[in-house]
Amino acid sequence: MFNLIIKRFRSLQEQIPLDNPGDQPSTPSPHRFQEYAKLPLLNGVNIEQISNHLEQCEKVQLTAGELLLSPHNPNNKMFVILDGALSVHISVLKNEPITLLKYGECVGEMSVFDGKEPSAYVVAEEDSCLLSIHRDILWTMVDTSHAIARNLLYFLSHRIRFGNDVYNDSLKSAKEHQEHANLDALTNLYNRRWINEKFQSEINKAKFEKRSLSLVMIDIDHFKLLNDRYGHLAGDEILKLVSNKMKALLRPGEMLARYGGEEFAILLPNTSTETAIRIAQRVRTGIEQCEHIDQSSGDAIHVTISAGISQLGKADSLESLIQSADQALYKAKDSGRNKVCY
């Protein structure tokens, strides 16, 4: 039986026509591919060993601005840059490129590895020449040469590290944007937007944990009169003076924000009304000692504040808590200002 199989195999060999005349099929000369020897992908690779595979690869010419890869189109090839440069764009093609790839670098390998669409747009930054390697050929090359497998691992690790860097930079930018969106530009205190988010979160937490929570609303006394007499620039300086002094007087966990205009809010988690009164008095007496020297007139402007306190009840919302503190604040103003009421 074995001899019959051997005879049949030899018979089939004799029936297969050769692509080239002669007794043996010709193989591509490895010297044809020496131009690829310096590519990082082929670092340490015996070119002669993979010359048959390279013969099946194509060269692709791109003109500047031509789209190579898109998240909307499937891809089954890896491209190695032989000349020119490619730009990589995330999310939208018109976005600024996140990186520029040049000689020896690869694109499309992730699609080859996972069989999914590309994760970015890749565009020819200038006229470029690429070596196109089909998925099947690439895997055959990997099976043939361990060096290629090693080089691909290097490319993959580099791509993952780069992706992590891009992701971290994106998170950092988003965090900075979030911080700027939550800060008042003049006083550098947290703003009304932050109050709506953070104060609501603390209220929910206090109710869930059945803990006390107090709110102090603060208003600069006679601020409109000061603005009218000394001007808005002096008013801005007074707002900054009061803000900085309050920050210095408060302790960690005592949350200060600018509510709007000359009004401020201090949220005090896990704080009773009695403790909130002491904190508000500490802030009031500290501000009372402040003065601002007006640059135009030379006048020493003495600043005072009034404060109103509310305590979170079971049925309270953020709005009702603020309303109760505001009512106490009006009481402090109506009774002569520079006072704390609850």
Write up this protein.
The protein is 44% helix and 21% strand. The protein is an alpha+beta fold and 342 residues long. The chain folds into two domains: 161 residues, Jelly Rolls, CATH 2.60.120; 150 residues, Reverse transcriptase/Diguanylate cyclase domain (Alpha-Beta Plaits). The strands form four sheets. A five-stranded mixed sheet has the order 10-11-9-14-15, sandwiched between helices. Strand 10 and strand 11 form a beta hairpin. Helix 4 packs across helix 5. The chain is elongated, with a radius of gyration of 36 Å. The N and C termini lie far apart (105 Å).
The oligomeric status of these chains comes to single chain
Any idea of the CATH class of the largest domain? Answer: Mainly Beta
Counted by DSSP, the helix tally is: 10
Helix content: 40-55%
CATH superfamily of the largest domain: Jelly Rolls
How many domains is the backbone divided into?
2
What labels describe this entry?
single chain; 342 residues; alpha+beta; Jelly Rolls; Alpha-Beta Plaits; five-stranded mixed β-sheet; four-stranded antiparallel β-sheet; 44% helix; 21% strand; elongated
Describe, in short, the structure shown.
This protein has 342 residues and is an alpha+beta fold. The protein has 2 domains: 2-162, Jelly Rolls (Sandwich); 192-341, 2-Layer Sandwich (Alpha-Beta Plaits).
